């Protein structure tokens, strides 16, 4: 009976015997409930991490809202700055120009009008 066996068949038989012995000797009952404590601890740590995540999300949202408000304020100030710069440029262009109304006045007419005002003003007693 063993004369007809080749090396491959002998290896298969040896491995089969080892497998049966390993199954017989290796059957220990592992209780699934031993991992219940680990699962409970992991659930507790998961809940704590979720609470931390919620607080971080709340802070993140408030910072985002502040950034949006600051961005809007920045854009408003940029528009005001541009308008002010345009007004300054306009004033700088007209800085050395003479107004036409001043050209029509004469110094004699101005002096006489001022002296008439001083003579005709009501006399009031001013106490200092």
Written account of the structure:
With 128 residues, the chain is mainly α. The chain has a domain at 39-81. The protein has helices at residues 7-25, 36-93, 100-104, 107-120. It is rod-shaped, with a radius of gyration of 50 Å. The model has no long low-confidence stretch (mean pLDDT 81).
Order of helices and strands: HHHH
- The total of beta strands comes to 0
Structure annotation, total helices: 4
Helix percentage: over 70%
The computed structural class is mainly alpha
Q: Segments where pLDDT lies below 50 for 5+ residues?
A: none
Structural shape: rod-shaped
Q: Give the averaged pLDDT, no decimals.
A: 81
The portion of residues forming beta strands comes to under 5%
Distance between the termini: 144 Å
For the sheet with most strands, the description reads: none
If you compute it from the alpha carbons, what radius of gyration comes out, rounded to the nearest whole angstrom? Answer: 50 Å
Key attributes of the depicted protein:
single chain; 128 residues; rod-shaped
């Amino acid at each position: 009976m063993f004369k007809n066996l080749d090396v491959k068949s002998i290896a298969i038989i040896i491995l089969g015997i080892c497998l049966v012995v390993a199954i017989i000797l290796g059957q220990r009952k592992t209780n699934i409930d031993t991992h219940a404590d680990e699962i409970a601890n992991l659930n507790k740590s998961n809940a704590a991490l979720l609470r931390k995540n919620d607080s971080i999300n709340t802070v993140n949202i408030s910072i985002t809202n502040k950034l949006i408000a600051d961005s809007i304020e920045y854009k408003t100030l940029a528009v005001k700055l541009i308008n002010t710069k345009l007004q300054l440029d306009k004033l700088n262009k007209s800085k050395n120009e003479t107004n036409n109304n001043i050209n029509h006045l004469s110094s004699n007419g101005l002096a006489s009008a001022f002296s008439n005002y001083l003579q005709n003003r009501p006399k009031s007693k001013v106490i200092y």
